[in-house]
Amino acid sequence: MKFLVCGGAGYIGSHMVRYLLRRQHEVVVYDNLSTGHRESVPASLLVVGDVGDDVSLEQLFSLHRFDAVMHFCALSLVGESVSKPNLYYINNVARTLILLEAMQTAGVDRLVFSSTAAVFGNPLTPLITEEHPTDPINPYGQSKLMVEKILADAAKAYGLRSVALRYFNAAGADPSGEIGEAHSPETHLIPNVLRSLLGQTSSLKVFGSDYDTRDGTCVRDYVHVNDLASAHLKAVEFMLDHEGAHIFNLGNGEGFSVREVIAAAERITGQEVSYEMAGRRSGDPPTLVASGQRAREILGWEPEFTDLDDILSSAWDWHTKPAF
Fold first, then answer.
1. Mean pLDDT over all residues of the chain?
2. Which fold has domain 2-171+223-251?
3. Mean pLDDT of 166-175
4. Residue 253 class from Cβ within 10 Å (0-12 exposed, 13-18 middle, 19+ buried)?
5. CA 20 to 30 Å from 64, out of 81, 156, 200, 273?
6. How far is it, in rounded angstroms, from Cα 165 to Cα 70?
7. What SS3 class is residue 220?
8. What is the pLDDT at residue 181?
């Protein structure tokens, strides 16, 4: 098949591109490079552009006949979304509408959308299923939930087929060691823990020690980035035979606290992690752990990396790979 991967030069998007190419699919990468990295994708596949640019999208869709679109473009910093909500609604919602208009005009009717566990807000149950109430506690989560609702409406009105995949915490790196997680600024726990061990960051901070969790720090469900990629392809295959708008959680079903992630990093590196405690970040729920049962049963999704140490090891291999 032929795919348009919007945001394909970013962390998850670039792994998606590599995953598709290994399976002999055709790919066009569309990215404005605001947070993505040009070197993460083959130059011949990259079209620099913005999903909010209707003229560029029209030109792109006129040049290619895509079987499906994968939409990874988003601002995703929870704290920033609290202080700059308009920015998040414009980027994550309004620009998605422009992409959907371009798809409709071009007759492309399959979309995989990157959603998030942030749509749930503070969980009411230890394990979050797709039926869990959605009550975001930050504008980032609100913006993603808005798009989910837009996709449901678009399915009824225009026949758009879509799958929204609610990520829990993406982590790890491609086993080749050639691409990995590199954000600026870097706010994710695992890369910051590893960067602190390499002396690439001055001080590792743990935000919040008084949550109602087993050790007082936040608990999260970590999913390897290549397993997220496999779920996207499964979602496209599912849409070949299923109409409507569908939603799946992507998680391992097991949560790890911040302190447990630090301990795992110490195990795989043989080094002691130095860190300091800081106050809670605005908009952070204490626990987010997903049930991925529906994705397994309906999509046939089977995560390959289910052990935290394996996920961390893949990230460490990328962080420590010599530069040539």
1. 93
2. Rossmann fold (3.40.50)
3. 90
4. middle
5. 156
6. 11
7. strand
8. 77
One-letter amino acid identity for 265? A
Q: Quick check: 231 pLDDT over 90?
A: yes
Length of the chain: 324
Which residue is associated with the tokens 């071009």? Answer: 106
Element (H, E) at 31: strand 26-31
- Taking the C-alpha atoms of residue 324 and residue 311, their distance in angstroms, rounded to an integer, is 24
User: Which residues are annotated as catalytic?
Assistant: 140
Q: Where are the beta strands (DSSP E) in 79-200?
A: 110-116, 161-167, 169-171
User: Cα 170–295–2 angle (5° rounding)?
Assistant: 75
Taking alpha carbons only, the member of 228, 116, 230, 225 closest to residue 179 is: 225
Count Cβ neighbours within 10 Å for each residue of 107-145 and write b for 16 or more, e otherwise. ebbbbbbbbbbbbbbebeeebbebebebebbbbbbbbbb
pLDDT band of 215, cuts 50, 70, 90: very high
